[in-house]
Write a structure and sequence with these properties.
The chain is of the alpha+beta class. The chain is 21% helix and 29% strand. The chain has two helices and five strands; from the N terminus they run αβββββα.
Amino acid sequence: MSGRRTAHEEAHDAAQPWTLRLGDLAHDTAAGKAGVVVDVPGEGVYSYHLRPEGAGGEKEWTAPKDGSTLRPATAQRQADER
């Protein structure tokens, strides 16, 4: 899974609530950075785990299991460009 999504997938998802999946690129508003989702809440996992894109020595971090601080990274990049 590359975490990259096509324009068609993103347009389709705009009409539906965003559901985080493994490999998605997400912007964590609490941490102020984007990362790749490497683990999702479920059996034995109590938060989202993210790894910096490219992972050049930066540490992984966690985000709340309700996903309240996570947004699609493409949406955040578009907001930053405005």
